[in-house]
């Protein structure tokens, strides 16, 4: 990887991390399109790279900030975390058998539905 690509990756991480911490959205909503556009990654490679970024370095600092402010339900987060791990394992395995175009379109549909719900829902 070139130094410019490395710097770009760090910059993308800082920007997406700031947005994620600010509005509480998972960084993948921004990171996956950035990886496919700026780095030419396939959908699967972008998804795998996105998941790798949340393993520890991001989550711990964002969590601590919200926890110190009293904005974390630890018990619920632990239950969701266990479910996320189980679901992630199944979803990750399933994704390996789907074409990139199916994953990309599913990703787009999910983002559009979530955006519509946020914009027009209560």
Automatic annotation (TrEMBL):
Matching InterPro entries: TM_pro_TauE-like, TSUP/Inactive_protease-like
Annotated localization: Cell membrane; Membrane
Membrane topology classification: Multi-pass membrane protein
Keywords annotated in UniProt: Cell membrane, Membrane, Transmembrane, Transmembrane helix
Domain of life: Bacteria
Pfam families: TauE
Family: Belongs to the 4-toluene sulfonate uptake permease (TSUP) (TC 2.A.102) family.
Protein name: Probable membrane transporter protein
Record field: transmembrane: 6-39, 51-70, 76-95, 102-120
